[in-house]
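Final report, section 2: Outcomes. Of the targets proposed, DUF2243 domain-containing protein is the one most frequently requested by collaborating groups, and we therefore present its record in full.
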Amino acid sequence: MHAHRKGRARRSPTTHQDRRTVLSGFLFGCGIAASVIDLFIFHLALHWHHFYDLSTTSVALVSDGFFHAFGWFITVWGLFLLADARRRGSISWTRWAGAVTVGVGFFQLFDGIVNHKLLRIHQIRYEVDLLPYDTVWIGSALILLVIGAAILWRSSRRRDVRATAGSDRQPGATETTGAAETTGAAETTGAAETPGTTGTPGTTGN
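The predicted structure is given below as tokens.
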């Protein structure tokens, strides 16, 4: 039981580091989806919609400003978490990239279902048939979620395999070190006993 607790204590820093890495990637992905993909492309470049389209144009532009600020806030938050994780230890960039992909897909799915269909505060585009737009929007979000989750799952499996292999090699290394220490101790003892044994007959002869 005590050994199990010690094992959990040894694993906790690595687990905490991994969670911090994944969280930073997730927040960064959500922020990029909000501030770059949605706002810059669909709001500013294409002018397809605003964040809140149920009022006047002025209100819509103000809502875009708040939405822009929120998007960049979570983007910078994710980068700060990433910098802190790098300061604490090594980063698994594969897991971080998987978390970013999940973040992009999650935000896009949330926007497509909650904002577009449940709250209806805006649509992807107006005066067109929304079915193909909604299908592409939500379908691509689901694809991104599946790809990101697969990356995280595969990288987690590889990490567990490496950890198991490392724990299997530790007893052998300990035994080798113990044998080397025993041999060194035996040689040291033999070397210490040799002068004393040689000098004894000389003393008796006197």
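Residues 6-10, 173-180, 194-206 have pLDDT under 50 and may be disordered.
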